[in-house]
């Protein structure tokens, strides 16, 4: 199936109201094709964060569609899996999501701590001193990442964390 065909399937599934899991599965198929968004030209899937304090995730890409979820956590990382005009299909770490207007989202990278008491190290090395610890569920800003480590800011602390303990990154992703 072509990239356009896969994206069409995603849009159709979203419009007819199938469960988010079905749409997420189709989105995962789209990621296999190393696709890019038809609107932005950015990679799909990709991570963004919530810019707004409150954001509604809708069943389809317009204000006329039903609201499925209301997110109330500014900075929450979201995975963009599709684009349509000014709308982005997003998925959270639990696989839920919907269509959000692009103005509610930011390109600033954040991640959710998945490990309990995740140490923030002074350097990207487990032998270096620990500056702080982050609890599971905490959202932090990512400043740079290598395939194994990320420089993260959490609660006024800054340190290196193991990338595998975070949700909000593609496996092996690097950026600065």
Provide a brief overview of the structure.
With 176 residues, this protein is α+β, with helices and mostly antiparallel strands. It has helices at 3-16, 20-32; strands at residues 46-50, 55-58, 67-71, 77-84, 87-91, 97-101, 105-106, 110-113, 118-121, 130-134, 139-145, 149-154, 157-162, 166-167.
Topology:
Elements: H1 3-16, H2 20-32, E1 46-50, E2 55-58, E3 67-71, E4 77-84, E5 87-91, E6 97-101, E7 105-106, E8 110-113, E9 118-121, E10 130-134, E11 139-145, E12 149-154, E13 157-162, E14 166-167
Antiparallel strand pairs: 1-4, 1-7, 2-3, 4-5, 5-6, 8-11, 8-14, 9-10, 11-12, 12-13
Helix pairs in contact: 1-2
Describe this protein's structure.
- It is a single chain.
- This protein is of the alpha+beta class and 176 residues long.
- 15% of the residues lie in helices and 39% in strands.
- Strand 11 and strand 12 (149-154) form a beta hairpin.
**For this structure, what is the CATH class of the largest domain?**
Mainly Beta
Query: What is the element string, with H for helices and E for strands?
Result: HHEEEEEEEEEEEEEE
Number of strands: 14
- Mean pLDDT comes to 86
**Coarse shape:** elongated
> How far apart are the first and last residues' alpha carbons, in Å?
34 Å
- Characterize the largest beta sheet: strand count, sense, and whether it forms a barrel: 5 strands, antiparallel
**CATH superfamily of the largest domain, called what?**
SH3 Domains
Q: Which band does the percent of strand residues land in?
A: 35-45%
Number of domains: 2
Structural category:
alpha+beta
What is the CATH topology classification name of the largest domain? SH3 type barrels
Number of helices: 2
State the share of residues found in helices, binned by percent: 10-25%
Q: Mind telling me the C-alpha Rg?
A: 17 Å
Question: Any idea what the CATH architecture of the largest domain is?
Answer: Roll
